[in-house]
Design a protein that fits this description.
Strand content: 5-15%
Number of domains: 1
Order of helices and strands: EHHEHEHEHEHH
CATH architecture: 3-Layer(aba) Sandwich
Strand order of the largest sheet: 3-2-1-4-5
Helix content: 40-55%
CATH class: Alpha Beta
Distance between the termini: 21 Å
Shape: globular
Number of helices: 7
Number of strands: 5
Radius of gyration: 14 Å
Largest sheet: 5 strands, parallel
């Protein structure tokens, strides 16, 4: 699966800790991240991550383009709901495109853990079928 990892500044340590805890699962997948988040996760875990721009510089939109192109299977975006984000329209657009294209989106650690355990047990295998159907359309 192709998985995007994103975190607001005040949540970066949370996504790093999550990545450390579930490295054994994440290493089996293609990982993508916005710039700073990806750099920090790679430094702490050694996981291979394709990095995009930072979120405020367009990284959220780059991930959104992958979703629109049926190239992303899941997004884990640990958001900070208590701090105003200067690029909030980009965040909203990313969340919207996940909904439009039926891409699972975890916006907090509890949801991310449910997703990761589901992946471990094959609960997201339906995405393979969706990708094949869209590829043949």
């Amino acid at each position: 699966m192709n998985i995007a990892l994103i975190a607001h500044d005040k949540k970066k340590q949370e996504i790093i800790n999550f990545s450390i805890a579930y490295k054994h699962i994440l290493k089996e997948h293609q990982l993508f991240a916005t710039g700073t988040t990806g750099k920090m996760i790679t430094e702490e875990t050694g996981l291979s991550i394709q990095r995009f721009q930072s979120g405020p510089l367009g990284g959220d939109q780059q991930i959104g383009a992958m979703i629109a192109g049926n190239e992303m299977d899941m997004v884990i975006f640990i958001r900070d709901p208590l701090t105003a984000q200067p690029h909030e329209p980009d965040v909203s657009a990313l969340m919207r495109i996940c909904d439009v294209h039926k891409i699972p989106l975890a916006t907090n650690l509890a949801a991310a853990e449910i997703f990761i355990h589901g992946m471990e047990h094959g609960a997201f295998d339906w995405r393979k079928t969706v990708k094949k159907q869209k590829g043949n359309a």
